[in-house]
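SAMPLE LOG
Freezer: B-3
Tube label: C17
Construct: single chain, 318 aa
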Amino acid sequence: MLDGYKDSQPIVYKILKNAIMDDKCSHAYLIETGGFYDSFNFVMSFVKSLLCPLKNLTKNNCGECHQCEVIDSGNFPEIDVIAPDGLWIKKEQLQNLQKEFTTKALIGNKRVYIIKQADRLNKSAANSILKFLEEPDNNIIAILITDNIYSVLTTIRSRCQILRLKSTDISKEPLNTIQKLKQIITINQDNKTADEEENMDLKIQKVIDFVNYFEKNHLNTLLYIGKLWNDYITSKEEIEMAYEIMINYYKDILNYILNKPLEIFELNNDIKMISENNTQDEICHKINKLVELKELIKYNINSGLLMDKLIMSLEGVI
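STRUCTURE (predicted):
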């Protein structure tokens, strides 16, 4: 149950526990995973604690209700989990959900739908879920899960209670920025030699240097893309890694603008400079563009064209 996460996710745990016990749960939650390895199981533990008629938060299975057993089996009729169908969550998936939820609950008095990778809602699907959120039913609770809340439509974010999970892996011991980034990037780092590790550290630093250079030189960055990028970031895997780093860099810059603690990067003059030269909306725009263009990597798009498009997108030219 939810109590199993009170040490690893103390803040979100306390918020959700109090909401359940006081019967004051929001009609919609947007949960940012924060790189937490067990994020979906955390969400399911919340749902289980929410729906358990005994509201027992202290055992893996309360052992006294059939409802908890059915949820554990994955066959509970009042829980719907929606995930991307291919690259995107489609309008038809949301329409089927809405149709299904117009029927009366078979067990209990609450129904829950979970949307995994909520940033993958295509435009029509996002509009469908928006209508669902604008007219909430007291007995229906939405839980949207994403790795990056800023890639979710602002109109959807504004209708949800936002919760951020923390990555226990990053916070276990004091790590430097490069070490933290290596814990969250997707590139395979197993069995690397010392030279390969050093080369990876260099690539990560070059990605950070690229952002700093762009923020100072803007479109002129196009003239030096070879020396700044192409000489270091070559494979498809490395390009995807680089985009993850840039997204996290801008997220920490946004944290600084919002007077929140930085999650990965250490405060320095570059972060201060970028925050002074960008508004909150401009940083959000850059994060969204990075997330959007990161999706194109899987289509084997020409890396040179991708970087040209990135620079022009970040600058607001396209």
